[in-house]
Amino acid sequence: MALIDAGLRGALIALLALVIAALVPHWRHARHADLVRVSIALAASLIVQALSASPWVEHQLSCQPQAPGIGISLGSAVLFWLFARAVFEDGFRLRAWHGGLWAAVAAFGATVCQWAPWWQGWVLMRAIPVVFALLGLASVVGPWRVDLIEARRRLRGVVVGGGSIYAVAMVVMRVRSADGSLSSDAALGDVAMLLTLTAVIAGRLLAPRAEGLWGEAEPPASPPPPATDAQDQLVAAALAKLMSEGRGYAREGLSLAGLAEQLGTPEYRLRRVINQGLGHRNFNAYVNGLRLAEAKRRLADPAERALPVLSIALDVGFGSIGPFNRAFKADTGLTPTEFRQKALADS
After folding, report:
1. Transmembrane residues, as ranges (predicted)?
2. What is the assigned CATH class of domain 2-206?
3. Which CA distances in Å does 149 have to 71, 146, 279?
4. CA dihedral sign, ordered 329, 33, 31, 77
5. Domain limits, the chain
6. Reduced to 3 states, what is the DSSP secondary structure of residue 247?
7. What are the helix (H) ranges across the chain?
8. What topology does CATH give the domain 230-346?
């Protein structure tokens, strides 16, 4: 059993090292730099976890020598959450407070030998991975319906969802242990699950593809060519008519499922038309882009100078002024009022 465990841990560490080697050249990737950096940090912390969670370390070493590894392993929960966000949120950006949060969690785990009273620290030690696993799952489930990239919906959902299940399973196994350490069988199950997840990711990263590391083309510099599939062409024409003449984007609470039903087409086909035909990666971003385009036109129209910003926001499909202001500022760098004043002054 010990030899099998050691072999699996060696394979896991080798795979994680290969993943890091594959990612390092893409440290400044134009679109995925933050995902690359989070992934490298997660892979490195999992190498430490693979070593610190081995039966020999947990059962033969005293608390103090294990403490740094425990801290880094606990910090993996934060990195997993950031990884899930970087995978599924197209606009995700690493912030300084993300690093501060990781450092705080890692420092807490590294003080495992100093806890007093011990039970409070023990509860937090088990709660932190569960909380961040649930946050990771929320990053999967939340944008699932509006994600237009089929490969990401299939593969990355399995990877991130599997990671959440793994984290919760590890907490359960440690809670059931009298002293919080893993038995030989549990440790073997731990490394086997982690190796499986890593193999899925490594297979995706290391397999040669014409599209490059990520298996998805860069955004086109010009509008994508029209769909060649006859049904896709019909859906694209119906969508264009609904969104232009019918102002379909202005309906509050518009969803991909509702729009597909309105057009009488399956969701998968509508996703393909919007993603591959129109070049959008996220349904909400596509709809909000149409809404903001009309809002900017109307804010710059002298004839609508007296119309309140709120009225325009509601009329183009935003449910309230808050989301409208945030989306408008993110798109233009100006508030709607500032944009109107500048546009009217220029005219």
Report:
1. 6-24, 36-57, 69-88, 100-117, 123-143, 155-175, 187-207
2. mainly alpha
3. 36, 9, 10
4. negative
5. 2-206, 230-346
6. coil
7. 2-23, 33-52, 55-60, 63-88, 96-110, 118-141, 150-151, 157-175, 184-206, 230-244, 256-263, 267-272, 283-299, 309-315, 321-332, 336-346
8. Arc Repressor Mutant, subunit A (1.10.10)
Q: Find the farthest-apart pair of alpha carbons in the chain and give their distance in angstroms, rounded.
A: 79
The radius of gyration computed from the CA coordinates of the chain, to the nearest angstrom, equals 25
Render pLDDT for 91-104 as a digit per residue (tens, 0 to 9). Answer: 789 999 999 999 99
> For residues 296 and 71, what is the distance between their CA atoms, to the nearest angstrom?
50
First to last CA, the chain: 78
For the segment 64-80, the average pLDDT, to the nearest whole number, is: 91
Lowest mean pLDDT: which of 200-214, 237-251, 264-278? Answer: 200-214
The pTM assigned to this predicted structure is 0.72
Q: How far apart are CA 74 and CA 187, in angstroms?
A: 16
| Omega prior to 226 cis, within 30 of 0 | no
Number of Cβ within 10 Å of residue 41's Cβ equals: 20
